């Protein structure tokens, strides 16, 4: 890492990496129907992966702890992340099986997506030997809940050295109760439903009761609801013409991790979060996620940013 990069906010991202095959269609086909897509794109995907890419795009340094493997499709995924300057620690580097593939159809008129994927079911990952050093160098460590045994081990190590831990709660997963005690900040989708919980308010209460100090629930274009030790409230989401909702939540989490890391770095590496700081990070993340949802695919918004600033 160069001296310049050592001055950047630094994040570690733990979770799923897939090959995303994304097609823009007029409608999701019915049984036995064939249709021609308007556009298609391919990219490394998965919640933690997209968050890491976002973190790097915003100006941080990002490392992804995941499973990809040596299959030709996996090599393409790794090449995509290398191009985006996201460091990859592949804990299944010798695996010859294809990586998880997400097949995604995005409806042009609404931006809604339909997704089929095997996710992380093919791998059981052990923590790397240099885990303690890996987390100690970070400002923030983010998890998407996939590769759960690995996530719990990394979160415990991060908590031991006082690094801020962030959960992307896309959905409730087996093992989530084991991870929550080691999480400082959890931002969940409206689809994250702990057992017996159905409303956003109940989700926030549940997270607080299970040791999460700062939490929020995102609800698409509706205001984000949040809670913390000092109270709670809402954060408005900017209004945009939605072209594609794919990855918007991942971008939200990557941007949130970045803005929390900025605060942590300003405080010497150990974040002491306040309501004002949490709301500021949520608001900034909502702006970035809304911008991302205004274009097709998970990368176009980044190219638009680069074109606007003249950066490459």
Short description:
The chain has 312 residues and is α/β, with parallel strands linked by helices.
Report on this structure.
This protein starts with a helix and ends with a helix. Helix 2 crosses helix 8 and helix 8 packs antiparallel against helix 9 (275-292). The chain has helices at residues 3-6, 47-58, 72-83, 131-136, 148-160, 176-179, 200-209, 248-266, 275-292, 300-309, and strands spanning 10-14, 18-25, 39-45, 61-66, 87-90, 101-107, 113-116, 140-143, 164-169, 185-189, 214-219, 222-228, 231-235. The longest helix has 19 residues, at 248-266. Strand 6 and strand 7 form a beta hairpin. By secondary structure, the protein is of the alpha/beta class. It has one domain (9-299): UDP-N-acetylmuramoyl-L-alanine:D-glutamate ligase (3-Layer(aba) Sandwich).
Segments where pLDDT lies below 50 for 5+ residues?
Answer: none
Taking Cα atoms only, what radius of gyration do you get, to the nearest Å?
18 Å
* Average pLDDT over all residues: 92
SS field, number of helical segments: 10
Helix content: 25-40%
End-to-end Cα distance = 19 Å
Structural class: alpha/beta
CATH homologous superfamily descriptor: Ribokinase
CATH class designation: Alpha Beta
- Strands of the widest sheet, in order across it, are 5-4-1-8-9-10-11-12-13
């Amino acid at each position: 890492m160069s001296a310049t990069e050592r001055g950047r906010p630094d994040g570690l991202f733990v979770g799923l990496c897939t090959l995303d095959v994304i097609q823009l269609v007029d409608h999701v086909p019915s049984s036995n129907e064939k249709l021609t897509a308007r556009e298609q794109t391919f990219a490394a995907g998965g919640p933690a992966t997209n968050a890491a890419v976002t973190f790097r795009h915003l100006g941080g340094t990002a490392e992804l702890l995941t499973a990809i493997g040596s299959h030709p499709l996996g090599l393409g995924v790794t090449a995509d992340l290398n191009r985006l300057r996201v460091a990859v620690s592949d804990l299944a580097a010798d695996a010859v099986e294809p990586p998880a593939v997400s097949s995604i159809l995005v409806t042009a008129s609404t931006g809604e997506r339909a997704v089929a994927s095997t996710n992380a079911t093919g791998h059981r990952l052990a923590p790397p030997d240099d885990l303690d050093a890996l987390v100690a160098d970070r400002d923030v460590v983010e998890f998407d809940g996939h590769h759960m045994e690995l996530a719990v081990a990394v979160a415990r190590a991060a908590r031991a050295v006082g690094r801020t831990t962030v959960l992307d709660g896309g959905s409730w997963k087996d093992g989530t109760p084991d991870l929550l005690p080691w999480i400082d900040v959890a931002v969940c989708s409206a689809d994250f439903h702990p057992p017996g919980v159905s409303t956003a308010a109940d989700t926030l209460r549940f997270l607080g009761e299970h040791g999460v100090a700062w939490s929020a629930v995102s609800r698409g274009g509706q205001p984000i609801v949040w809670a913390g030790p000092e109270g709670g409230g809402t954060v408005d989401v900017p209004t945009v013409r939605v072209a594609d909702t794919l990855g918007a939540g991942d971008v939200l989490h990557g941007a949130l991790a970045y803005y929390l890391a900025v605060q942590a770095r300003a405080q010497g590496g150990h974040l002491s979060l306040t309501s004002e700081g949490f709301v500021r990070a949520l608001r900034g993340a909502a702006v970035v996620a809304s911008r991302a949802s205004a274009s097709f695919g998970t990368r176009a918004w980044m190219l638009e940013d680069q074109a606007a600033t003249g950066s490459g």
